[in-house]
Amino acid sequence: MKEKALFCFLLMCMLASTLLMLVVLNSINSVRDHSSRSGPGAFNSIMQIDRSLHNYTETLEEYRFNFDNADLRESLRKKYQAQFDIIWGNLEYFNLRSPNESSGISADRNDAALLNFKHDARQFLQSTDALMQTDVILTKDQVSALLDELDMILKTHHDLSQGYFTSAIAYHDSWVNNLNKLHNLLYFFSAALIAAAALLTALLVRSNARKNALVAETDAARTKLRSTVEELRSGKLEQRAKDSFIAAASHDLSQPLHALGLFLNSLEHHVHDAKGKQTLNEAVQCSNNLGELFRSLLDMSRLDAGIVEVRKIHFNLKELLSMLEHEFQLKSQELDIKLEFSADNVVTYSDPILLSRIVRNLIENALVHSNAELIRVVCTPSASGYQLSVEDNGRGISSNEQQMIFSEFYQVRNKTPSANNGLGLGLSIVHRLAELLDMDILLESEKGVATKFSLNVPRGDSGKVLASQNSTSQENLTLPDQDIVVAVVDDDPSICSAMSLMLGNMGLNAVTATTTDSLIDKLIESKHLPDLIVADYRLSKGQTGDQAIVQLKRALNIEVPAILITGDTSPLHVSHAAKSGFELLHKPIEPTELSEKLTQMLLKSIQPSPGRVRSSAPVNDKSANFG
Fold first, then answer.
1. Using CA of residue 245, residue 247, residue 250, residue 253, what is the dihedral sign?
2. Angle of helix 140-267 relative to helix 274-305, nearest 10 degrees?
């Protein structure tokens, strides 16, 4: 209670000190503001105007009196013209405020006098300026008229001066009173400040005593916490190092693998004999197998980055399973494994893309690892909707391994070697995607007998099923016969060469470079603007692909579609690339997939018609295209 009372009293003293300080500062500011309106500056301005007006008046009178003397008249004419310039400067920049405006004493009267004086002075300057030119000789009548106007201005100036000095005297008395008030307020402020400082010192002494009492307990808790943190840190550091290594290695390896796929695709047009085609197909298959490994790493990175969006719709499950049956038919035949699908025309409500990925991974896992003769994909009714299961009659999974198969990079020991056993990420991806879809995944397995993975799929509404959108014919994916230019920027020269070959086989003109600046130079030299931009995400000197695309568009003053390609599996980089707003593809990309995507984007941006104007207008020089 004592500490609380001391604290409240201290707070009150501090608030009082603050309020007093604000009052003092406000009063000081008021005195400072008013003092600027009175003093030598204002007095000197009034006296200068009065002196210059009288001098000008006297010179004009002397000029009128000696008008018949030509020599004296000419010297007097130059004199009053010079004096008029002085008067013009004084009156043009004259500004005066009442020193006692805040008190209201004579403020209205002074303002009226000031306005009258400014009005008369402005009219005098305007009417007299033409008469003061060097080639104008005033007549006696003109001089008399000027003297009459000057007499009125002097009278107005006299009234203004008299009001100003009256206000200045009143202000002096008010200024003295304000200083006395400030003196008293400073005494109160000092007393409150001293009291607050004394109380604050007392509280600091008590706080220091309590701190010393808690030091021993803090040291003991810190020692225990340090040991706990070190244990946690060791595991996190290992995980971070592993993720960093995988991200760096996968990016560096995806570059040549992506280029390899493009080169193999371009090589197909030059191989004609059967043996060469067989060898090329085997090389393509090996490249595709490596691509699947990298896609698994990419799927995990996208899940870690949190950029996988769930878009649930009502759709026919049998159509999805039929697509998967067609996809795995050839592979199952090559492995001599019977693949059966059993599903009625049922409608479910889920994300068809993510659900198909789950089932695809389960089927792929069974084909590669189960050593089964039969794999069945079955959909049966359940209490909450449908149960979708993938089961095989293979070698099964032991009970001690069933809890580990959903972990990253874990594989059941396989005695049967396979051409592509994967990285052990398939079931981990299944588990993560099932969590995104709010589905429970169940595993039933007996060692040496069978394995069954089951999903509870929610029931959908057949009335809300959208019509199939896959009605685009192959003819629609044919580009018009035009001079189409695709700009490619990638810091890997081999990928630039491979992209040039692939785009050339597609009938497109490719302009490639390893930096954005050199690509701009090449496009300007070619005198053609691109219809599409393809950029790698990680470029040299720390530049990213989205920055390169924006630089190209601004430099060339164009607005064309763009594709961002990344071989990075770092969750942070994947997330940044996905948020760039551009179409995003991931290396390594199968050439057919890449060519289809390029064709689709070009068809959207290029609408061929008889009156269509090409975007590739001639470019004369570099400066002509910088916006």
1. negative
2. 130
Q: Give the pairing type, strands 509-513 and 485-489.
A: parallel
In 544-600, at which residue ranges do the beta strands (DSSP E only) sit?
562-566, 583-586
- Res 103: pLDDT: 43
Count of CB atoms situated within 10 Å of the CB of 211? 10
- Helix, strand or coil, per DSSP, at residue 316: strand
Q: pLDDT for 115-134, tens place per residue?
A: 777 777 788 888 788 888 87
The per-residue pLDDT for 505 is 84
109 versus 385: which is more confidently predicted? 385
Specify the CATH architecture of the domain 308-462. 2-Layer Sandwich (3.30)
Rounded to two decimals, what is the model's pTM? 0.42
Cβ atoms of 571 and 304 within 8 Å: the answer is yes
CA dihedral 453, 456, 461, 467 (to 10 degrees): -30
Rounded CA gap, 124 and 145, in Å?
11
Residue spans of the domains in the chain: they are 2-200, 308-462, 477-625
456: β partners: 387
Q: Encoding tokens for residue 209?
A: 């005593």
Higher pLDDT, 11 or 348: 348
Q: Which of 118-127, 147-156, 385-394, 505-514 has the lowest mean pLDDT?
A: 118-127
The larger pLDDT score, comparing residue 244 to residue 92, is at 92
Amino acid at 515: T
Task: Look at residues 512, 573, 515, 555 and name the one whose alpha carbon lies nearest to residue 539.
Answer: 515
Q: Which amino acid is at 274?
A: A
- CATH number at 477-625: 3.40.50.2300
Is the pLDDT at 415 greater than 60? The verdict is no
So what's the pLDDT on residue 540? 85
Residue among 85, 92, 77 at smallest CA distance from 142: 77
Amino acid identity at 370 = S
**Closest C-alpha to 190, from 179, 201, 198, 202:** 198
Greater model confidence, 176 or 563: 563
DSSP 414-479: -SS--S----S-HHHHHHHHHHHTT--EEEEEETTTEEEEEEEEEB--GGGPPPP-----GGGGPP
Q: What is the mean pLDDT of the chain?
A: 75
Do 459 and 383 touch, CB atoms closer than 8 A?
A: no
By CB neighbour count within 10 A (0-12 exposed, 13-18 middle, 19+ buried), where does 487 fall?
Answer: buried
CA distance linking residue 284 with residue 245, whole number of Å: 27
Cα–Cα distances in angstroms (integers) from residue 305 to residues 55, 308, 353, 439, 623, in the given order: 86, 8, 18, 21, 41
**Helix axes 40-65 and 140-267, enclosed angle (nearest 10):** 130
